[in-house]
Design brief:
heterodimer; A: alpha/beta; 2 domains; 14 helices; about 65% helix; B: alpha/beta; Rossmann fold; Alpha-Beta Plaits; 4-stranded antiparallel sheet; 10 helices; elongated
């Protein structure tokens, strides 16, 4: 019995060492995902990250506003950017990276506090980046308390030195109020507005990678690819035909997901639900082209699964399908610009959460299709050169 | 078939290496309309590489291929459509029905919908799969799959048919059907290159054979010529009762003893020709050898192959 156990265990170890796919899945794939997640979510656990940019408009020009601005300048989590126009800071939110929030200190704030009132700072927020907004609001709230504390301490000292408390008004409080950066949009979002497109894109990528790459390997293994080549049909035509079919399946998959998301989870479909087809077209095309790349670099049928899943998951994670892009370190955000997932998520967020018109999805579409064309070109060249 | 007719498919001094291994070494061959040329060799001899190059799926390192007198690059699509390929693997879609498989390849070959419909019906009937046309291919027996594999290669009636071991693993009945269909196909005017390591098949349907071994073409010609190149002669295997005479069979003219198991009463004699059989048997009676059984063996491709290469057709060359 013991001999059987020992010999079987030995043989299993031998098989494991001989199977690079299993080793890949056991070692390399988790390392890739852990690396991406670790860098992306590092800031949640206090790890070093780049600061957020905080545009501020000071319409008050009083002592309290000066105190707030001084305190914000010393805050490591934000880089202050002083501007004059409230409309401009409003526009910067949601239109620019690392700017989930902007602050306006209304005229008369210092005077109102001095008069014992409770004025409110105005915070323009991007609902898409709710997590970052919440984190920054906590810091701003803390700073407000600190500044008010200093003002009150100064007032207390003054009262005590004058000895006539009834002659002075004790300073009031300072808080803030949220306003949407875009007029008409909500300041909070349904979590499914993020998750439905995010995970929809993830599974679209996985489905495309496996669908296209595996079937191409099947065709190669069966010999049908060779037979079709001998039929006189150009290999490029055969590949494009396969990609087109999968592209249509990808479109249908996303449309179905949005329908289910709307029916079951009440997701927002934006001003014009039909506009959601714009980013869907882009990501379906790019994902299909990426499937061809995987087919052309995988060495065998068995390598498609680990390679495809690892690329899909890493691309989805880096591209902001699972968590806000702003969590990621600078180099990863730069890398994300080259991912079709990044642009697609931006378009979905603009259309669904930021309530933007369909035209807002055109630039992301161009970027996604552009990246997809690079994938397509590379995949075609390599696959054809290997098989012609 | 007329040998005067120009070859429809020709390979001229083609060579191909995979890394440091030379898979094909300066091989030339040609096939004419109506002819079945057998490409005969053991596994790993270079048959599939040769077919892949002829099918324009693989580029030779040197040498060239001419289809209908033209190099493939002049009109790759058009010239490829003259070819029908029946690969060794079952190049079919398992989930599709027989009719859907044939239809897909027919359409890809450029047939119109009407032509494809007619050709599918005809070819399925020819290979005997009409009544199973709507069944998925994965539900077929091995022999039926091979027949369907053949059907997909000939559905567009190509002038050149390239067959790579089309009968591997099939039952006798299906093999018979496949061989018959191929013979009919050639008789209708198509050129066929038939790759196999079954010498019985080559002897049965090929008009001409090409023996290939370790990437080299070692013999080419009609069956009689190639067999004669092996230098083999007919043999008679005797089972006898009693004692052999002194000097054994030396007194029989034109006969040479090539083996014997005296204790079992067996002997193998080599003759100049099969015409000597009666004379040999008569001579044996004169020597008081009581022959109780005998088998005749004519030299065949296998003998020729062994004589020319030193190993058998079923040996794997690595």
């Amino acid at each position: 019995m013991l001999r059987a156990i020992w010999l079987t265990a030995q043989n299993e170890a031998r098989l494991l060492v001989k199977d690079p796919i299993v080793l890949f899945m056991l070692l390399f794939a988790p390392v890739v995902i852990i690396t991406v997640a670790g860098y992306s979510l590092g800031s949640l656990y206090g790890g070093a990250t780049n600061s957020f940019r905080l545009p501020v408009v000071d319409l008050d020009h009083g002592k309290l506003a000066d105190g707030m601005i001084q305190a914000l300048r010393q805050e490591r989590a934000v880089t202050l950017e002083m501007l004059d126009d409230p409309d401009e800071v409003r526009r910067l939110v949601s239109r620019r990276d690392r700017t989930p929030i902007a602050m306006v200190i209304p005229a008369g704030t210092s005077a109102a506090v001095a008069a014992g009132l409770q004025p409110r700072l105005i915070l323009f927020v991007d609902p898409v980046r709710r997590v970052e907004v919440n984190a920054l609001e906590l810091r701003i709230d803390e700073l407000c308390r600190r500044v008010i504390g200093q003002v009150r301490m100064a007032a207390q000292t003054q009262i005590e030195s004058l000895g006539a408390p009834q002659a002075l008004t004790f300073p009031g409080d300072l808080g803030f109020v949220e306003q949407p950066a875009v007029v008409g949009e909500a300041v909070t979002v349904n979590a499914f507005d993020q998750y439905v497109p995010g995970f929809g894109v993830t599974f679209l990528l996985i489905g495309m990678m496996l669908g296209i790459a595996l079937t191409l390997f099947d065709e190669r293994d069966w010999g049908t690819l060779k037979r079709l080549q001998v039929s006189g049909a150009p290999l490029t035509g055969l590949l494009l035909g396969k990609l087109f079919a999968r592209f249509i399946v990808g479109l249908a998959q996303m449309v179905l997901l949005f329908a289910v998301g709307w029916a079951l989870f009440g997701i927002t479909l934006g001003r014009n639900p039909l506009a959601l087809i714009i980013p869907t077209v882009g990501i379906s095309f790019a994902a299909a082209a990426l499937g061809l790349v995987v087919a052309s670099i995988a060495r065998a049928h068995d390598s498609v699964m680990p390679l495809g899943v690892t690329i899909s998951m890493a691309m989805a994670a880096i591209g902001g399908c699972w968590w806000p892009l702003d969590f990621e370190p600078g180099w990863m955000r730069e890398l994300a610009r080259w991912m079709p997932t990044t642009w697609t998520m931006q378009a979905f967020n603009d259309l669904m959460i930021r309530n933007q018109p369909p035209s807002a999805a055109l630039r992301p579409l161009a970027a996604t299709v552009g990246i997809g064309m690079i994938f397509l070109g590379a995949g075609l060249v390599r696959f054809v050169s290997l098989n012609e | 078939m007329s040998l005067a007719e120009a070859p429809i498919l020709e390979a001229i001094e083609i060579s191909k290496s995979y890394g440091t291994r030379l898979a094909l070494d300066n091989v030339s061959l040609a096939v004419r309309p109506g002819e079945i040329a057998g490409l005969l060799g053991p596994n790993g001899a270079g048959k599939t590489t040769t077919l892949s190059i002829l099918a324009t799926l693989l580029r030779p390192d040197s040498g060239r291929v001419l289809i209908n007198g033209n190099p493939p690059k002049t009109d790759r699509s058009g010239l490829r459509r003259m070819l029908g390929l029946v690969p060794q693997s079952l190049a079919l879609y398992p989930a599709l029905s027989a009719a859907q498989n044939v239809w897909h390849f027919a359409r890809m070959q450029g047939l119109s919908r009407d032509e494809a419909k007619e050709c599918c019906r005809r070819v399925l009937e020819e290979v005997g799969l009409s009544d199973r046309a709507d069944d998925p291919m994965h539900a077929f027996s091995g022999g039926m799959k091979r027949l369907l594999n053949l059907a997909c290669g000939i559905v567009h009636r190509p002038p050149v048919l390239l067959l790579d071991e089309p009968t591997v693993g099939v039952d006798l009945q299906s093999r018979e059907q496949i061989l018959t269909r191929i013979r009919h196909y050639a008789d209708a005017g198509s050129a066929v290159i038939y790759s196999t390591h079954y010498m019985e098949e080559a002897e049965r349907i090929c008009d001409r054979v090409l023996l290939i071994d370790r990437g080299k073409l070692i013999a080419e010609g009609d069956l009689e010529k190639v067999i004669s190149l092996g230098g083999g002669r007919p043999r008679i295997e005797l089972t006898y009762r009693g004692q052999l005479p002194d000097g054994r069979f030396g007194s029989l003219a034109g006969v040479r003893e090539v083996g014997a198991i005296v204790s079992e009463g067996k002997a193998i004699l080599e003759m100049n020709s099969l015409a000597q059989v009666a004379k040999v048997l008569h001579g044996l009676r004169g020597l008081d050898v009581n022959v109780i059984d005998f088998n005749l063996h004519s030299p065949n491709l296998s003998d020729a192959f062994i004589a020319l290469t030193g190993h058998t057709l079923r040996d794997q060359v690595l």
